[in-house]
C-alpha cells in the first residue's frame, strides 16, 4: 500500500522528469554532433518530438494532480467556502466529461486503419504510439479529477473550513 501511495503522489512527476532529461540529452547530443562533428543525428529530432508530445500529456495530468493549471477564480472567490466547493465540482465534472470524450475519440482515431498502418518517417515507429499519448494523458488527468471530486465530496460532508477556499 505504501508503494501505491508513493506512485499516486509521484507517477507523473517521475515520468515527466525522465522524459525531460531524455529530451535534454537528445538535444544536447544532436547539437554536439551537428556543430562539433559536422554530422547530425537524423533520428534525433523525431525522437525529441515524440518525447515532447508524451512529456506534455503527462505534464497536463501532473498539473491536474497538483491543481496548478490555469483557473479563472473570480466567481469562486465571491462565494462562501461551500459555494466555492460546488463551483470546483462543477468545473471538475465538465473537464472530466471533456477528457472522457477526448479519450473515446482518440481511441477511435488510433484504431482507424489509416492511422494504425502509419509509421514515422525516420524511425519507422508506429504512429499509434505517438497518438496514444493523448488518451493516456486524458485518462491520467481523469483519475486526478476524480480524486479531487472525492476530496470535494468529503469536504462537503465534513463541512468546509476557510482553508477550502484557497
Structural overview:
The structure is a single chain. Helices cover 77% and strands 0% of the residues. It has 7 helices and no strands. It has helices at residues 2-35, 44-66, 74-78, 81-111, 113-116, 127-131, 133-158. α2 (44-66) runs parallel beside α7 and α4 runs antiparallel to α7 (133-158). The protein starts with a helix and ends in an 8-residue tail after the last helix.
Sequence-ordered SSE layout with sheet pairings:
Elements: H1 2-35, H2 44-66, H3 74-78, H4 81-111, H5 113-116, H6 127-131, H7 133-158
Strand content: under 5%
Give the averaged pLDDT, no decimals. 90
| Euclidean distance between termini CA atoms | 30 Å
Order of helices and strands: HHHHHHH
Shape: elongated
Number of helical segments with 4 or more residues:
7
List keywords for this structure.
77% helix; mainly alpha; disordered C terminus; 166 residues; single chain
What is the gist of this entry?
The chain has 166 residues and is mainly α.
Amino acid at each position: 500500500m505504501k508503494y501505491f501511495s508513493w506512485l499516486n503522489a509521484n507517477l507523473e512527476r517521475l515520468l515527466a522528469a525522465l522524459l525531460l532529461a531524455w529530451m535534454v540529452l537528445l538535444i544536447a547530443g544532436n547539437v554536439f554532433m551537428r556543430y562539433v562533428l559536422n554530422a547530425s543525428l537524423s533520428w534525433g529530432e523525431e525522437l525529441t518530438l515524440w518525447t515532447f508530445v508524451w512529456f506534455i500529456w503527462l505534464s497536463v495530468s501532473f498539473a491536474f494532480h497538483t491543481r496548478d493549471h490555469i483557473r479563472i477564480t473570480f466567481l469562486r472567490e465571491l462565494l462562501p467556502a461551500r459555494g466555492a466547493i460546488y463551483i470546483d465540482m462543477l468545473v471538475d465534472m465538465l473537464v472530466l466529461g471533456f477528457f472522457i470524450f477526448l479519450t473515446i475519440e482518440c481511441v477511435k482515431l488510433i484504431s482507424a486503419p489509416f492511422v494504425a498502418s502509419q509509421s514515422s518517417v525516420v524511425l519507422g515507429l508506429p504512429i499509434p504510439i505517438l497518438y496514444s499519448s493523448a488518451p493516456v494523458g486524458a485518462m491520467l488527468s481523469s483519475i486526478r479529477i476524480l480524486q479531487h471530486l472525492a476530496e470535494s465530496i468529503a469536504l462537503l460532508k465534513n463541512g468546509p473550513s476557510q482553508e477550502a477556499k484557497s
